[in-house]
Amino acid sequence: MNHFIEVCLDTENQVWLMLHSGSRNIGNMLAQCHISTAKELAKMAGNKLADPDLAYFVAGTPEFQAYWRDLQWAQDYARFNRNVMMARFKHIIEKHLAGGKATKPLLEVNCHHNYAEKEVHFGEEVYVTRKGAVRAQQEDYGIIPGSMGAISYIVKGKGHAHSFCSCSHGAGRLLSRNKAKNVYTLDDLIEQTKGVECRKDTGVLDEIPGAYKPIDQVMENQSDLVEIVATLKQVVCVKG
Ligand SMILES: Nc1nc2c(ncn2[C@@H]2O[C@H](COP(=O)(O)O)[C@@H](O)[C@H]2O)c(=O)[nH]1
Ligand SMILES: [Mn+2]
């Protein structure tokens, strides 16, 4: 899991506080419990699945309802966590950069990623799972981070029907964690994070910017899904 907080500047030198975090594994643990139940159910029903990992629940059954309830709980927990972390982060920034005075954000964006939601698409109520994606309905604000050395974007959704009103939740990996550690050196990490106050040791070599796809290309490829509202560059990045 990759969690981070950043102090960023936009192209007008306005300060943005960004954080990326989810349910901190509890959502995953709950999912594993429900996946085991789905596998057992498939076995008991004698369902021949192409792969055991394709085990599923049928909407409306008690098992589905229990899964859905836990999923919603994990999402609420993740949002609450982000709110708490952001409040503390803001307080620290106010203390050190604003002479202790409370500041008022011009824009607040808090979006889920890796989650599921019940929505209407093409006239039908459906369950949409966004894995590595965020919602980009018209007027939805979203955050698309690049890497610990690249630009990140604040976006507004265009409500593109054929993407089920979604966009990417980041640049995405170009290299696996292991590959990145084999390909790059500590000197590369220092070079690629020049100007960013962040960890510069082999413990974060798998997070080197070169391990991620070029964010500008990713944004160009999804220009029909979102419009760019702000372009951010981090000055501080703390990995959790
Ligand atoms: N601004 C930063 N962006 C980062 C950092 N580490 C990763 N990323 C980008 O975020 C997405 C989402 O991360 P994930 O771990 O949930 O997949 C990822 O695809 C990268 O593009 C960072 O330290 N700062
Ligand atoms: Mn994530």
UniProtKB/TrEMBL annotation:
Record keyword Manganese present: yes
Cofactor(s) this protein requires: Mn(2+)
Cofactor note: Binds 2 manganese ions per subunit.
Recorded GO MF terms: DNA ligase activity; GTP binding; manganese ion binding; RNA ligase (GTP) activity
Residues the entry annotates as binding Mn(2+): H20, H113
Keyword presence, Thylakoid: no
Top-level EC class: ligase
Pfam families: RtcB (PF01139)
PANTHER family: RNA-SPLICING LIGASE RTCB
Protein name in UniProt: 3'-phosphate/5'-hydroxy nucleic acid ligase
Species per Swiss-Prot/TrEMBL record: Chlorogloeopsis fritschii PCC 6912
